[in-house]
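**Protein of interest**
===
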Amino acid sequence: MIETLKNAFRNKEIRRKIFITLLLLLVFRLGCYIPVPGLDRGQFESAITGNDFLQLMSGVTGNALSQGTLFALGIGPYINASIIVQLLTVGIPALERLSKQGEEGKKRLTLITRIITVILAVVQSVGIIINFANESNAINTTLFGGEVWVAGIYMAVVYTAGSMLVMWLGERITDLGVSNGISMIIFIGIVSTAGMSLLNKFIAMGDGTLKIGDGLLEVGIFIILAAIIFFLVTFVDLAERKIPVQYAKQVRGTKMYGGQSSVIPMKITGSGVMPLIFAYAIVSFPSMLISLFWPNTTAATNLAKWFSGNGEWYGQLIYSVVLCLLIFAFAFFYAQIQFNPEDVSKSIQQNGGFIQGIRPGKPTAQYLKKINNRITLFGAIFLTLVAFIPSVVFSWASYDLVNVFSTTGILIVVSVALELDKQLQSQIMMKNYKGFLK
């Protein structure tokens, strides 16, 4: 990765793209510190504490959500809209046809995604305002003539506009910078959250609230454990099963085509972090619903006791079991969306290919489906371990550093870093070929 960055900075055009990316990411980080008038940050942060899904979203936004700043929603509405469109593409034939119409179809799907993003941003903003309206002194209505509904409309507009601005920054990074802009914004949000947590640890050592020796020991153990976990996650993320495919020779006129061999790469973590995000969203939905409409009732107390990652031990056990089952279910569901054995088998057969020892057609589809299910099983087990092990391991260093890298954040950081490395290598290779042709 370091060598790739060195080679990228040697090229003037790629270096310019990198600087544009850094500038746009800096604008995003500045927006994460712009406060919204009329909101009590303490109430904002206390409402998020204890909700795993909101804590995950806060980590993705670089703690902007917990601080209630301009970019509090971050890129979350756009991510959710993209997931919804992707799922609807599988179930709605009209959207499926659009996805196969090339660049024009892609533009129309992008427009649909943006419209859904606006709707989701408005809904999430209203949900936040309703939640804080239930909290005492959460909203300073004196700035709005004492009217709560005026304050709510104002904040909903501000948060929706902030989310749209983040989406625009991500698209500009994709067009003018390097790698995928949305992924880079998520990446920088998670890394900045980790950086701020470590910085607070050093500040505590500086003002005397934490002994220097104890603080350095905690940070050192944390860095060692983080390096080990990142190495293991990267090792599994790069692992893949390669299925060899042989193409028969074909004679067309006076020329012979084919006769080559290829592979079908099937990654263990092909579904990425989507199963984790889906699972956390589902298990957090009941608590979010109750906190919005019935915040101080017996139902809220019982839910916190019997179904919460921070409740009683039996509540934590039920919560963990349900979360594991959801991760497994969504891992297999998302694997079916991403990899269609019938389509792959048909494509291989149409191009004169075959898998050695397997007959073309339906037997090939059944073979690919069996392999995909086995790989998905190991991938689901890996995602389940990632969902629980890091928080336990990091607690050995310090409980203050447990949430520095969330379970999903580790996978996102590794995936985005590897994708950035691939993008830079491909651009460097293109520039080298261009120079050779000149």
The first strand starts at residue 240 and ends at 247. Strands lie at 240-247, 249-252, 255-258, 261-267, 353-354.
